[in-house]
Amino acid sequence: MSSPHFGQPPKPASTDAGPSHELPEVTALEAAPPSRPGRVMAWALWDWGTQPFATVITTFVFAVYITSSSFGAGNTPALALSTSTAIAGVIVALLAPVLGQRADRSGHTVRNLRWQTWALVAISASLFFVAPDPKWLWPGLALLGIGSIISELAGVNYNATIEQVASPRNVGRVSGLGWGMGYMGGIVVLLLIYVTLIAPDTLENGLDVRYGMLVCAAWTLLFTIPTFLVIRDREQVRSERRPVSIVSAYRDVFGTIKGLWHEQRELFWFLIASALFRDGLAGVFSFGAVIATSTFGFTAGSVIIFGAAANIVAGLATIASGLLDDVLGPRTVILGSLVGLIACGVGVFALHDGGPKVFWSLGLIMCMFVGPAQSAARSYLARIIPAGRSGEIFGLYATTGRAISFLAPTLFGLSISLGASLTGRENTQYWGILGIVMVLLVGLVAMLMVRPNRRATV
User: Fold this and answer.
1) Once rounded to an integer, what is the mean pLDDT over residues 353-378?
2) What pTM was computed for the model?
3) Helix, coil or strand: residue 138
4) What is the spatial distance between Cα 249 and Cα 345, in angstroms, rounded to a whole number?
């Protein structure tokens, strides 16, 4: 049987004049041949190997380095980083579904992933040349922005390869292992760089950070080798479809969106719901350090220690949650995780005068829910994507997430302003957690509206 083509009009139902909600005839997981268990770990090492770009480069080390006073006075570096990040996000949103679709049609998903991974290695290594001088601000941000684009597009292709190592019975565990390995790998290389290069404080001219970029590049190059030894482009896919022009690809993407509305309404709504709650999940990590420092009295050193503990807890919880995913279904894991996050977020707000112990306890509990929600979202999609459409649908998944990525930061800021106006206090950053909770709550409500799917509820 052939899978439905989303760009075509829906088939009329014999007993129902409304839109069809039937499952695709064959999903990507069901169409894939069985995979040996040993391949799963090799596949998950891509997450382990590429995570330093997110953890070390864009979050804890290079982003902090390039926004320091060495690159400009006042807010200039930070504003420049914000601008470059926004531009990169728009490019990802525009390119992800089209490039994913073209990979599906050409059968070159793994080839594209391989070149994107190697390009990420080259970008990471090239950051070594970004010396602490204002003239390097925009070149450094350009490299960072290009790397962010490549990283996200590579993630689309990587997610699409999960069908090569998972089955409908274990996709939750496979997805959880990958996400968990990513958390663990990122924190291991961060601690390695911190202990050996940054903490000794013996290098000048930014060489502690710059040598760290070379470590990230080598780490990615080394640990992604096993992945490319076990996954391959599928010859049968390559022979079934031919690449189309960019204009035709965009036209087909809009046809896909229209087709999802008619043929797989639950997938359409899931893309929207997941965009909402994933933005809230991103807000937890993006603004957690801000709240820890400004409200709970964490020092710079204690923030790093908490960050390490948070990633370890998130990694272990995500790996363990894969078992629940396969037993209870990803939708249940997502809903449970969002409820837990909302409850803890409200607790952080209510107990903001409790000192560091409050944030340590509730913050780490929140980290236990973030990874499982992310992993289960990938598992949910993998279970219901029609055969031959993984790249395109995961591309739309990336695009919808980018489309509303402004929501959590905006509500975080508005909540702080509201707190200041209501309390008259100068420091009301703890009110920002309510903004993040609001995004998570809206995502929870939207997810409750996603009709349970037989393949995604076990």
Assistant:
1) 91
2) 0.81
3) helix
4) 41
Q: How far apart are CA 160 and CA 389, in angstroms?
A: 9
Q: What does the block give as tokens for 267?
A: 């997938």
Length in residues, the chain: 458
Q: Is 421 exposed, middle or buried (0-12, 13-18, 19+ CB in 10 A)?
A: exposed
Instruction: Give 318-352 pLDDT, tens digit per residue.
Output: 999 999 999 999 999 999 999 999 999 999 999 98
Separation CA 430–CA 251 (nearest Å): 45
DSSP 162: G
Q: Are 363 and 66 spatial neighbours (Cβ–Cβ below 8 Å)?
A: no
* H-run or E-run covering 48: helix 38-52
Angle of CA points 94, 451, 255, to nearest 5°:
35
